[in-house]
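sanity check this record:

:::
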Amino acid sequence: MVTAQEHSRIKDLLGRIVSGTRRVCVMGSANVDYTVTTEELPLPGQTVNGGPLQILPGGKSANQAASAGRIGARVSMLGMVGQDDNADFLLRKLSEAHVDTSHMGSAPGPSGSTVITVDSHGENTIVYSAGSNAQVSPDYVQANQSVLQEAAVLGLCLESPLEAVMASATICHNRGIPVLLNDSPFLADLPRELIGQTDILLVNEHELADLLRIEPELVAVDEQVADGFGRFHDQWEQIRSSLAAFGYQTAIVTLGSHGAVVLNGSQATYIRPVHVQAVDTTGCGDSFMGTILSGIAAGLSLTDSAYLASYVAAYAATGIGAQASYGSSQQILNFYFPVTEKS
């Protein structure tokens, strides 16, 4: 599926992550996802028959931590689980992904959860219950500041209370530790304090358009011109300038099946997509971010990190669920460059 040169580059980058000694820290959410498939979504007051209930680990932050751990990074997670059976399930799944959960807290009541209904056309309804995620506080963050200060990079999203997110960013920013913010669930009006304390922004093309209040068409990338010096660079120079005025000199913009763009200083680098037979794209964006965090901790450039993240996230799209679809370094290598037995 990939050339020998690509395989060599992927193997080298994964090897550097596996052999790295610096630690990723992710502070945020962990949820249990309850998913049922139906022929049609129910109308108000209607009951419909559904398929088997799937209970899977989720939560954006937990997904990001699990993805990083699966490919061999050293990872610590901060956050809250409830005092229910789901707490044991979530912690066990993170531990199986080689994530250190020893500093995660426990709050009275249920763990975070989502209830998802998916119809035969792929349309869905999602109900999110924050549960214990809503109990993550600045006091909890301060009590675990040593974990943050020992990290090489901090990953944040916005499924946790904003005050706790900002407290985490402040601790790492004051220590000179790079902070990567995934503006998801999307918040258009990010606090100026948070912008000033986060170093790298990760958004998709729709979020970027909303953030900068520009037409979505201006973010679209034509793969045929992306490697040239024409429209692509003119287009992304304008976006880079707008993002810098917003507060970010460094950003990664994911474009779904069209790849990604890394904005770093005055440079805009296009990352070509990796095409696979997708089964379920749930959690692929989180897998991408987990790989970026792993790359930063291992000393990789943002371009190399995003290049690798495209392969890791594409692999995740070939499986069901989020964390359940994430692969180890060896599984990912074998998928793209199968080892054939000698006859």
Summary: The CA atoms of residues 106 and 199 lie 30 Å apart. Residues 4-30+60-109+133-336 form a domain with the UDP-N-acetylmuramoyl-L-alanine:D-glutamate ligase fold (CATH 3.40.1190.20).
